[in-house]
Amino acid sequence: MCGITGYIDFSSSTPPETLISMVNALHHRGPDDKGHEIFHNRQGTTIGLGQTRLSILDLTSAGHQPMSYKDLCTVFNGEIYNFKEIRKELEGFGHRFISNSDTEVILHAYEQWGPEFVHRLVGMFVIVIYDKALDKLLIYRDRAGVKPIFYYWHDGLFMFASELKSLFIHSRFQSEIDRNALLLYFDFGYIPSPYSIFQHTFKVEPGKFLVLDIKKKELFLERYWTIDDFYSKAKYSFDYHEAKERVKDLLIKSCDYRMVADVPVGIFLSGGYDSSTVTALLQKDKTEQLKTFTIGFEEGNNEAPYAKKIAQYLGTDHSEYTFTTREAQDIIPELSYYYDEPFADSSAIPTKLVSKLARNRVKVALSADGGDELFAGYTDYSKLDKQLEFLNKIPVQLNFVLRPSLLFISGLLSNSHSEIKHKLRSVAITLNSNKIKRAIELRRVSYSLPHYYHKNLFSSVLNRYKTKYDDELSNIGSVLEIALAIDYDMYLQNDIMTKVDRASMSVSLEGREPLLDHRLFEFVAQLPNEYKYNRLETKRILKDISHEYIPKELLERPKAGFSLPIYNWLRGDLQYLIDEYLDEKSISESNLFNTDFVREQVILFNKDRFHYKPIIWKLLMFQMWYRRWIK
Q1: DSSP annotation string for 471-520
Q2: Which DSSP helix (H) or strand (E) runs through 47?
Q3: Residue 433 has what pLDDT?
Q4: Domain count of the chain?
Q5: What is the CATH number of the domain that holds 146?
Q6: I need a surface site. Which of 107, 292, 298, 373 has the fewest CB within 10 A?
Q7: How does 258-272 read in b/e, with b if 16+ C-beta sit within 10 Å?
């Protein structure tokens, strides 16, 4: 696990010390070791590769990066969990190894199988390979997007980095805000790949690899994996019992893989089904107590008592800490540094706190993210079902009357009902759509900014970039699977994985995701929907597996999550943040927003008469980011 960075400068004008500074900017991601190397090809182009290392496997200097082998050099962030099996296969072909690291296996695997070697990897990764013989740079990102990678391509300079802050170091990096990407941020609270907040700067999407032909100065991206392919396949014919046993076997293998390390490993335990199942499967045959970690809060939703009961039942070595309101609030000013792109998920606060707790005792922590996207756990899926059932009952011949009527009603409602206006307008738009497009549009509406704010918030008209919501998903058979596929590519990757990566790496902690093993996702995607979800129960198959190890009464409760009273704080102890960052002068500095409109919204919020609170937190997070990185 580490931070990686580098550049290809076709003008060869980058000073060598720039690469060192780019590496140092990622120190928190890998404080155990640093490395950098600069190459020059025959055309005089300069290639720089750098890495900061968080030592997890092969703690010796043999795991140092950049690592070279013949005409290949790599920097790599992540873990390849099946590297020992791949190594054994490669040894059968005559390969010899001098370390016990997965990094060395990557280089040999690329030499043996070429660019297609990625299909053999089980893990989380961003792999950068400089192939000197072909004069090409390749960047691979894992299938779920667990590990981040940005790249910049403009005016004869290509750069890449685990975090944007490393790119800022280079004097030729142009931090020009992409206004259309800004619209995406205010829609979703994050900027989905492949976009970033800056022009000329992008993210490699999960399941893709980038190739830069240095000699030709040509860049292209190719997809090697997508979850859509598996939702599009025919469903397995296993009966429920056999399917459950196969899922359990895949879960056990996935969890066991993620315990492989040369340093202490622990587990984030919330007491919900996902983390409790992971903990139970790992503790069941072990005499040694697993280390589990939970945090609680003085305010908001507190899951610590539930987690404690699970830990006691399973017999783990449990650590629990209740953070004060002040400790939680003190994290907020740090967010804009570690999330160096605008990011508005307030659960980043507790995620950072639980990472800090775990780092006191372990260097690796398993996090049970992805269970909702894998086993259909969100309550939103039930709402979508009911909405579509109602809309599909409307006779087609009535659409031409109902559509203008809904638009008319939406226009009559006051702006204080902006969310209802937004939903009515969106339903009207979907009435002439087929079942698939209707489902996609309703899913998009549930996450995006109401039309009223689109129209009034910004100082200029912005165009909406295409996202997963604009993809053609007609090959996927059911509405539920469309929702799952969209959430995998949008919310899971861009929100949850971003949140966990930056929070854990801010304290030099490696986070691992056993529920995101691609083999598990591929299998579950091809199970009949009723094995996962029906109108009476979500996560059916996972829950039945869990109940084999943990009594049902310890797990059954309404779905919750990290929840803090952010908006109460912003009208109380944290009012000074609103006053400092959302005053008229601060808002006008960027020339991005309608200052009068923002002022009106702040007044309404302060009087507790605001009806769409998320816009306040999104604005605050953006303004704090802007002041730290742009102003």
Answers
A1: S--TTS--HHHHHHHHHIIIIIIIIIIHHHHHHHHTTT-EEE-GGG-HHH
A2: strand 46-53
A3: 67
A4: 3
A5: 3.60.20.10
A6: 298
A7: bbbbeeebbbbbbbb
- Rounded to two decimals, the pTM is 0.93
**H-run or E-run covering 130:** strand 123-131
> Which pLDDT value is given to residue 438?
77
Residue 228: C-alpha distances to residues 80, 225, 232, 489 (Å): 23, 9, 6, 10
**Counting runs of H as helices and runs of E as strands, what totals does the chain give?**
27, 17
Any idea which residue has 């469309």 for tokens? 482
In angstroms, what is the C-alpha Rg of the chain? 25
Which amino acid type is present at position 423? K
**Burial group, residue 393, by CB count within 10 angstroms (0-12, 13-18, 19+):** exposed
Which pair of tokens denotes residue 578? 């609103």
Last residue of a domain, one of 191, 225, 259: 225
Q: Angle at CA 295, nearest 5°, toward 292 and 297?
A: 165
Residue 218 lies in a domain: yes
Q: Which pLDDT tens digit goes with each residue over 334-346?
A: 999 999 999 999 9
Whether 103 and 247 share a structural domain: no
pLDDT at 409: 66
- In terms of domains, do 256 and 239 share one? yes
Q: Determine the pLDDT at residue 429.
A: 66
Q: Strands of 33-40's sheet, edge to edge?
A: 33-40, 46-53, 2-9, 157-161, 150-154, 201-203
Q: Are residues 138 and 245 in the same domain?
A: no
pLDDT tens profile 127-166: 999 999 999 999 999 999 999 999 999 999 999 999 999 9
Extract the runs of DSSP E, i.e. beta strands, from 190-235: 201-203, 208-213, 218-223
Query: Quick one: pLDDT at residue 628?
Result: 95
Phi-psi label, residue 115: left if phi above 0, alpha if psi -120 to 50, beta otherwise:
alpha
**How would you class 189 by CB atoms within 10 Å of its CB: exposed for 0-12, middle for 13-18, buried for 19 or more?**
buried
* 144 inside domain: yes
- Stretches where the chain sits below pLDDT 70 are 1, 300, 392-403, 405-433, 558-562
Residues 76 and 209 in one domain: yes
Q: What is the DSSP secondary-structure string of 372-399?
A: HHHHT--THHHHHHHHHHHHHTS-GGGH
Same domain, 488 and 525: yes
User: What pLDDT does 165 receive?
Assistant: 97
pLDDT of residue 418: 60
356 in the same domain as 251:
yes
Three-state DSSP at 408 gives: helix
* The last residue of a domain, from among 225, 250, 274: 225
The single-letter code of the amino acid at 309 is: K
Domain membership of residue 156 (yes or no) is yes
Residues tagged active-site? 2
Which residues form the domain of 72?
Answer: 2-225
Task: Answer whether residue 383 is part of any domain.
Answer: no
Q: What is the pLDDT of residue 208?
A: 98
pLDDT of residue 295: 92
pLDDT value for 421: 63
47 and 184 co-located in one domain:
yes
pLDDT at position 297 is 84
Please state, in angstroms and rounded to a whole number, the distance separating the CA atoms of residues 143 and 519.
11
Amino acid at 497: M
For 213, residues 6+ apart whose C-beta sits below 8 A from its C-beta are: 135, 136, 219
Structural tokens at position 362: 């372990």
Q: What is the pLDDT at residue 269?
A: 96
**Confidence (pLDDT) at 83:** 96
Tokens of 281: 């499967």
Tokens of 441: 């549009």
What is the number of residues in the chain? 631
